[in-house]
Amino acid sequence: MNGIYHKIGIKADETSVRNALTTQKGLSGWWTTQVSGPFADGTSSPGESIRFDFGIAAFDMKVVKQESRSVVWQCTSGPEDWVGSLIDFELSEAKSPAGEPMTLVYFRHKDWKAESEFTAHCSMKWAVFLLSLRSLVETGKGQPAPHDLKIDDMN
Fold first, then answer.
1. Distance between CA 40 and CA 118 in Å, rounded?
2. Whole-prediction pTM
3. How many whole angstroms separate alpha carbon 13 and alpha carbon 29?
4. pLDDT digits (tens, 9 = 90+) for 36-47
């Protein structure tokens, strides 16, 4: 089973982080500016699909789980290696080394069909976008695609 695993601390409460993971405004503020879906009552819900369009590629994610400390999506369309994979955000309260409250985000993108050069690219891009998530929540401004940091020959 192939996958990607990252951990990042965000100096904000869990609600602020969860909102960035479950609302159209939040998602378009850190991952890609082109986000669409029903977002009934302002947030995504289990069973609904969210479309993330990056111009050169688009992904459809089915919301599998959405709870106070957990958001899980399943990729239903996009690059072949992603289809069927799960993207999992687990949130946990913590303190920074300076004693400030923070939320830890444990991120997994699991069940890739194969490990490849594309996996390596996506691992680095997920790190870039998780830093964008942190920036959005902490400062109000992220770096979603197409304004993201370009890292290699794939973007």
1. 34
2. 0.96
3. 17
4. 999 988 999 999
pLDDT at 107: 98
Strands (E), the chain: 2-10, 34-36, 49-53, 58-67, 70-77, 86-95, 101-112
Asked if 73 and 84 count as a contact pair (C-beta separation under 8 A), the reply is no
Statement: residue 48 has pLDDT above 90: yes
142 conformational bin, left if phi > 0, alpha if psi -120 to 50, beta if neither = beta
- Contact of 10 with 112, CB cutoff 8 Å: no
Distance CA 129, CA 46 (A): 23
The C-alpha angle 65, 71, 72, rounded to 5 degrees, equals 60
In DSSP terms, which residues pair with 102 in a beta bridge? Answer: 94
pLDDT tier, 114 (very low <50, low <70, confident <90, very high otherwise): confident
Domains of the chain, start order? 2-139 (3.30.530.20)
Q: Tell me the two tokens of residue 2.
A: 């192939």
